[in-house]
Design a protein that fits this description.
The protein has helices spanning 16-20, 54-58, and strands spanning 3-6, 26-28, 40-42, 64-68. It is of the alpha+beta class. It has a single domain (3-68), classed as Alpha-Beta Plaits. It has a two-stranded antiparallel sheet. A two-stranded antiparallel sheet has the order 2-3.
């Protein structure tokens, strides 16, 4: 099963990855991180992630640490 790993401490909440995900599986978290920002989180209850890595490529802060293709 494909999925991504996001470092919420690294995320500066630019939200560019949200628009980049073709399946819209990244959303704004309810939590606040150490930077005072609301980081993104991966939400894929139906296993729709393609493992395309478009989100990781778009992230300017390298907060999307890993992309697994399943």
């Amino acid at each position: 099963m494909s999925h991504i790993v996001i470092d919420d401490k690294q995320c500066k909440a630019c939200y560019l990855c949200i628009d980049e995900c073709p399946k819209k599986l990244i959303k704004v978290s309810d939590k606040v991180n150490n930077l005072g920002a609301r980081p993104v989180e991966f939400y894929d209850p139906n296993g729709e992630c393609l493992g395309c890595a478009m989100c990781a490529t778009r992230c300017p802060d390298l907060a999307i640490r890993e992309v697994y293709r399943g």
